[in-house]
Amino acid sequence: MQSPSLRLLERRFLPSPMRLLAWGIATAGICCVAFVSWYWVSHALASGWTSTDIHNYILGGLRLNAGHPFYGYGPGDERILLTDPGTDYPIYSPPLIGVVFRLVVLLPANGLYIWWAIMDLLEIVAVVVLVRRATLATGLVLIPLSISIGSAMEYGNVDCLLVAGLVLAWWWMTRGHDNWAALAIAVLASIKLTPVILVLWLIVTGRTRPAAIAIGCGVAFAVVAMAGTEPLIFAKFYEVTTANFAGAYGLQTPSAWARAIGAPAEIAALMPRMILVGGAVLMWLARRRPALAWSIGALLMWLGSPVADLQTPALALVALAPLAWPMTGRQGTEQSEAGADRSAEKHHGRTETPAPGTLGAETTP
After folding, report:
1. Which long-range contacts link 169-174 to residues 24+ away (Cβ below 8 Å)?
2. 265-285 and 197-204 are packed helices; what angle lies between their axes, rounded to 10 degrees?
3. Across 312-338, average pLDDT
4. Residue 343's pLDDT band (boundaries 50, 70, 90)?
5. Structural contact between residues 181 and 175, judged by C-beta atoms closer than 8 angstroms
6. For the chain, which end, N or C, has fewer CB atoms within 10 Å of the first or last residue's CB respectively?
7. Across all residues in the chain, what is the average pLDDT?
8. Which residues contact residue 188 at a Cβ distance below 8 angstroms, ignoring those fewer than 6 apart?
9. What is the pLDDT of residue 40?
């Protein structure tokens, strides 16, 4: 008969069949990502990164430093090689990324290798942490997303920063640091628009103070962007964004999939907007389940984008954060319930007086 101490040692040091399966799948996913990343990065090194996103960011910073338009071309500016039939703008990102790259291009080699190394390191850290915390789910996702993850690492795309930053934001929220998470969301949405959907998540789940912090910080970053570019830069950014939504020519968008099966171009172009509206409704319906609502918002960053390219599906990694760090029942519901209670109290003319050690007690004046 086996002794209790021996059984304890077996449970501690011998993995269960399910854990072996999870780590086997995760290993296969990591191998896929490693191979694809090696292939794409080798390709980028051979081409000198001339057709990658980091090259576009650098050119944007150089145009601004030369006094040329960020969303257009000046005399002698290098034109961007278009990879799809979309609008002819040199960059689609918010103007703050241009302000950042006004400084980056002052580094050796225009900061190309430093930026690329930082983005790749952030993506690798995010993947490793997710594998460690949610082994089976992450392993299953890594296999189909390996091409997108490798592409993001090749391009030095800011999506690498988004994945790491939003995983960190979720971790902060599970630790009760909602304000820090809101600041992270504001920073990321200011350099790439897609995370703005998570501001809606803050609102629908009753996190009104963090939502206000995110919006206020976003306004402050907008002022910085205008100071570093031109006063009317957001009018031009609005023009770029609406033009992209009108065509929705991204290669990894539902619009592209709809056109591939023969859908009319007018209907296909509406797909990102329809998905955004539908996804926002789903987030509201799931407001009392913040983890589910977060995952929906994370997927909308990809499926609701009109310019989603090969690397964009890598943002789906953000949807795994709630599996890596589950939000406790109290963390997950008290904010949304508090928001709902405040709305009800306003409607019935009542105020809330919190009692020590409780979520709050209602009194009628």
Report:
1. 169/198, 170/294, 170/318, 170/321, 170/322, 170/324, 170/325, 171/321, 171/325, 173/327, 173/331, 174/325, 174/326, 174/327, 174/328, 174/331
2. 30
3. 78
4. very low
5. no
6. N
7. 84
8. 161, 162, 165, 166, 195
9. 74
248-302 pLDDT, tens digit per residue, is 677 788 888 888 888 888 888 889 899 999 999 999 999 999 999 999 999 999 9
Which residues lie closer than 8 Å to 15 by C-beta, 6 or more apart?
Answer: 23
Q: What is the sign of the dihedral through the CA atoms of 327, 330, 335 and 340? A: positive
Q: How do the residues of the chain divide into helix, strand and coil, expressed in percent and rounded to 5?
A: 70, 0, 25
pLDDT at 336: 52
Q: Where is 351: in which H helix or E strand?
A: strand 351-353
What contacts 225, CB < 8 A, 6 or more positions away? 94, 95, 96, 98, 99, 190, 233, 234
Phi and psi at residue 52, in whole multiples of 5°?
-115, 170
Q: What pTM was computed for the model?
A: 0.84
